[in-house]
Write the structure tokens for this entry.
Amino acid sequence: MGTIAEQQNTITLIETVKNALSKDAPKTLEDQTSEAVTTTTFKVHDDQKATVEAALAKAKEQCGSTVSTVALEFMALDFLGGQSMKQRLQKMGSDAALAAVADAFPQLNSEVSLVESEAAA
């Protein structure tokens, strides 16, 4: 079967490590290793390429990832209405979600602090 590193390409492995080290990891390490990886290819015109790259960059920023495939899935789920607001915010991670709320509502002045869970106490 092999190790996690042997089963993933470099980009996927980097994201796996990043998520494993992050407190806001949307998936567990086990969830990521059980998913099959496939390839989809598109041919686009020059002006379409610029638009797609700009959309991917914006989606990466909003979902808090540096991986294009994660951003593409984020955009697709948003388009399909497949994510609730709660799910979208959770996938973004707490820092990016709070920044998005602050940008959307600049008239609000709020303070947020992390509450320790009962399991940690």
Remarks:
- The helical segments are 4-7, 10-21, 29-33, 46-63, 68-80, 85-92, 94-104.
- Residues 39-106 form one domain.
- Residues 46-63 form the longest helix (18 residues).
- The chain has two domains: 1-38, 39-106.
